[in-house]
Each structure stands twice: as C-alpha cells, then as structure tokens.
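Extended Data, panel c. Modelled sequence:
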Amino acid sequence: MAKLLTICHYGLVPIQGGGALKSFHLLRQLARFHEVHAIIFQRETELRRETEGYKVPDCVRIYSPLDEPPPPSVFDRLPRRLGPGLHYRWLRRSWRGPASGDYLQCHHLVRRILREQEIDAAVFEYVGSLSIAPLIQELSPKTLRILNAHNVDHKLLAQEFRSRESPGHTEESPTCTAPGTAASSPSPLQQERGPGRGVPQCCQSHDTGSKSPTPRPASRGEGGRRPGEGNPIEAGGGEPKVVKQTRLIEQNLGRYVDAVWACSEVDRHDLAAPNGIPGYVIPNGVDTSFYSYDASAQKAEAPFLLFSGWLGTRANDDGVRFLVHEVWPLILKQFPAMRLLIVGGGASEDLKQVMQEIPQIEVSGQVTDVRPYFKRAAVALVPLRIGSGTRLKILEAMSQGNPVVSTRKGAEGIEAQDGEHILLADEPATFAQAVMRLLADRTLFNQMRQRARKFVEDRYDWDVVGEAANQSLCELLREPRAQ
C-alpha cells in the first residue's frame, strides 16, 4: 500500500459534470488500494455528507483550503492587484512565471502533508492543479508526480474558438468562461460538464515577460471567479492567446510530472509522446450498478429520443443546434409521432428559444438524476462536433440499455465498434438514417443494446478503470526515476 496525495482544485459533490464524476470515482478507486490524502477545494462537511448517493470515502483524509485557509501574511495589506503576485513570488523565491492563486490557497497544506507524511505519489486532477507540482518536487523529490488529464485542453479550446467564430454563432451562445465554484464541482473546460466550466485558469496570468509555462489556476473561494475576472480569450494572430499558452504547457508537461493518465489512446499520444514521459490510458467509466440495464421488451417502442448534457458548453450547444436544425426534421418525416427529449440545464436564451419553437421537443432543464429520462427513451443521441476526452453520456446510455447513435467526434476515445456496439454517422442524412434503422429494426435494436451493455461491463465499469489506474501506479512506483 502506497501513500498518495491527490490535488483537486475544484469541488466534487454534488456531482454536476463529467470532470467531477471522474475525479470522484478515481479518488474512490485509489482509496481501495492505497492510503489517500486529498486536497480538495470544497468544505469537508460537504464532501462527507452523502449527496445524491455520492460521498467521499471515510478512509480518505481530506484537507480543504476553505476549512483551513492560509495563515495571514504582510502581503494581505497590499492592494489586491499587487499583494497576491508578490506573495507568490516571495514563496517561490522566483520572479519567473505567472502567479498562481491556488498555490497561495493550499501551499501551507502541501507543506504540512509532506512534513507529516512520506508521500509516494501525487496525482494532479487536470492541468490547472500543476501549479503545486514544483513545490512538491522541491520538498519531496522522490514523490512520483502524475497528471490525470481529462482532455487535451489546447485542442479542445481551439475547437471551441473555431466554433465561436463560425457563422452560426450568436452572442447568446456560450463561450469559454472561467471555471466555477467548489459547490458546482467544475471541471476544467466547457466540455460535457456542469455549470461554470471554462478555459483552464492555468492560462490566465500576471504576465512577467517570462516564457516559462507555469500553470496557473484561478484563486477561488466559495464564490468561484476572481473579482474583476473577465473572459480570458484574447484573439491575436488568428488564434486566442489562451490556446497558445495551453499548448505550451501541455508540450512541457515533463517539467512538472513524471507520467500522465489520459482518457483515450489519442490523448495519451498527444500528451505523453511529445514530453518523453510514460502515458497510460485511464478512461472515463460508468457505474454499471447505478446505471442498471433496462431489460423491458417494450424498450424499442418508447416514444422519445434522448439528448443529455449540460447545455452551457460550446460542444453541447453546437450539438443540439445541429440535431434540432439538421437531423430532427429528417427523423420526423418518417416517424412523426416521435418526440425529442433534451435533458440538461445551462442553455443560453437563444438556444432555449430555438428548442421552444419546435413542439415535438421536450426540455427538462437540469435534473438530479438522469436515469428516469433514459428509461423513457428508446435511442440516445450524441451529435457532437466539438470535444476531447471521452463522453460519459455514451457509457451511461450503453449501461442502461439505450442504443447509441453518435458522430465520430462524439464517440472519440471510446473503443466501441461501429455497427456492433454503436452506430456512427457525421452527416445529417446518415445520422438520421442510423436512428431510423434502430427504430425500424427491433432485432438490431435489441442486439446492439445487449452487446453495448456487455462492452461497458467488461471495459468501462469504474472497478475495471480503478484496477487499470492501480496497475499503472504500481508499475511507475517500481521503476527507478532520475531525481
């Protein structure tokens, strides 16, 4: 049994997005095998309280900067625009790189943990947490450092920027904004996540002229965005500054970590290979017990098709518009009694109006439990054209017995076979035809959902994912590393 330190610079419960969901389950899985100490930007009472079936395991030792704020310093007397930056540079004894608010909020916890415990490995949830990596390397050089990468962030941001610049974009459509609060359990990017997701705060900096790509998350309290913080995307030279900075960080991960966990083989190649560090595929997973299989013989006769996801993200906003404007009319021509069920909050006013104008669409808004909506539906739709990582909504649908029709981008990172576990189509006509094939062919409908359920049980159940994470961790701890 090893001693682990995990650093999560956002809250976990209630679970409101894929990023928080993966962080929660991975934390729970690691605690099956090891002694886990966790710095989480959420109050311990909230993390210990069971919320919607989720609570951090009792065996995990929690350290929260909200419960144990950093001690006062002379820098607190300085103006807000000056004090934190000087405090950070004084602590680091360096003028290099941008200042990190998260470093200021939890450096005292890191120092205490490393003073009291001999930590074997530190796991950083998302690139924004990497601002703490140099401190761990300084105080405990033998500690293995691993990045749990939820996406290839610079690619995702570039996709979102191109989509924002596309002719179909309106001012009401969501754009990249800052990550949210601990209470909303944000993940790093606006991609199939919950409220308040946005661009990585590691790319918002007090520019000192240094070219050192020091990751910098936002300083957050319970209120989320820093006072006076605006949209971090700054276009220049045809590409936003945040994309360039994020790419620079991800191409220099070897400065901060010894290995990377990626959601897919594509992400592993993009993050590990350029840095010359080991990479392992630790995919998103699904709780197959919680998302139980609907064996109803009448499943194919359900009158709804389902789209689920937080509509405040660029990916889901674009996907719904593609579905509603280009795919849905083709399906209605052949199945006029069919209805489209859209589950998820965060829609812009413009998107709400688009959905309200079509009588065959039912919009639920944000819900605490998506399972009843999957039960009402026949086929689950994933019409995404933007994204990175892997889509949890596909795994949840497969687990519950809803056949899935997806774009190739939507299914990226999931090793499902087209025609066996899922139907893939990218154009409106072929996407609609795939949906109609399932609705018209009861044998195909049932065979595909049965194979898909077996597929996620064998490959993507969280216990299987946890075993893979533990195996990679043990392998890394056995290998000698240069100090």
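Residues 168-236 have pLDDT under 50 and may be disordered. This feature is highlighted in the accompanying rendering.
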